Amino acid sequence: MRLQAIAGKSFLVIGRVGMDLTPSPPGTRTQDATTMMVAMGGSSANIAAGLCRLGCSAALATTVSDDAVGWYCLNQLDHYGIDRTHVKTTRGEYRTSLAVYETRITEHQSVIYRNNAADFQMSVADVEAIDFSRYGAMITTGTVFAAEPSRGAALRACELARAAGLPIVFDVDYRPYSWPSAEIAQQVLSEVGALSDIIVGNDEEFGFMAGGISRGLNEAHSLAARGAAIVVYKLGAQGSVTYADGQEFRTGIFPVNAVKPTGAGDSFLAGFMAALAEQRPLHDAILRGSACAAIVVARPGCAPAMPTQQELEAFLAAHPGPTSA
Asked: Could you please report the per-residue DSSP string of 228-271?
């Protein structure tokens, strides 16, 4: 079975790395900031960082600008132990993604700079240079498919991953501002979903793929029926519904005092995949992903907030358990 390859704990992650700026101290509004915390960001890089902190290996495939911000990201990938062999640089007017977001829940503000994004310059040639046989699974997020040439490159990566016997893990991660139109996004994301073995998304994302939020749960169920081995339908504070092997089960969340709404999805996926790589039961893997999400929303930053294996075990030991689903 294709999913057995995940046990190798070696992941290829396709997608962006960027720089995050967060007003300090926590609770400060961007408009009032005088100092900022600087950290690595970008959904794919965050996932890779989370995997590495949990004892897995992860390589990132993307493109960064050949400038100080891009160099910062390269240094940060090294800091987190992420293999950057497949991270290319580009010159000209393309720029590495920059995000400014607040460590606050009430009236939270996030501003993401994605004009002429460098990561969209990843090419088919870039992914064809990768030896997919070195990895146990490929993870990709929806944003990488939002523009060319990275859309074609990521679709080609899916083909090469399947040919190499790698399971494809797809975090839908729909960001409307990155796409030329909702119609193109729905078509492409649905195409990627049909190629994927594990699909993770929230109610809005599955609803978007289905053409309406009210049809999201049916879409998740349908994707599982059409061939996806695992589909996780996230419901925020209500937990999640997981479809696998013709069955479904619900899980709750680990309540914490959240300081921000960002980073939970990236941490969930990292914790979930690391647990599957440890060959834990699916139900336990979902709960460990949920615990990782809870840890991250209770800390400033995204990549810096990703828990280590020891921190995750300590959280699970100290926490009374998840809510009832």
From this structure: -SEEEEE-GGG-EEEEETTEEEEE-------S-SSSHHHHHHHH
How do residues 294-325 score in pLDDT, each as one tens digit? 999 999 999 999 999 999 999 999 998 788 75
- For residue 122, give every residue at least 6 positions away whose Cβ sits within 8 Å of its Cβ, in sequence order, or none: 14, 61, 62, 63, 88, 144, 149, 150, 153, 154
Q: Which domain holds residue 53?
A: 2-15+43-62+122-318
> Residue 145 carries which side chain, given as an amino acid letter?
F
Q: What is the pLDDT of residue 163?
A: 96
Q: What's this model's pTM, rounded to 2 decimal places? A: 0.97
**Residue 302 phi, psi (nearest 5):** -110, -70
Q: Are 122 and 147 in contact (CB under 8 A)?
A: no
- Distance (Å, whole) CA 83 – CA 220: 32
Is position 323 within any domain?
no
174 belongs to a structural domain: yes
Rounded Cα gap, residues 277 and 289, in angstroms: 12
92: in domain = no
Q: What local confidence, expressed as pLDDT, does residue 325 receive?
A: 59
- Is 280 among the domain residues? yes
Which residue type sits at 267? S
What's the number of domains the chain is made of? 1
CATH of the domain at 244: 3.40.1190.20
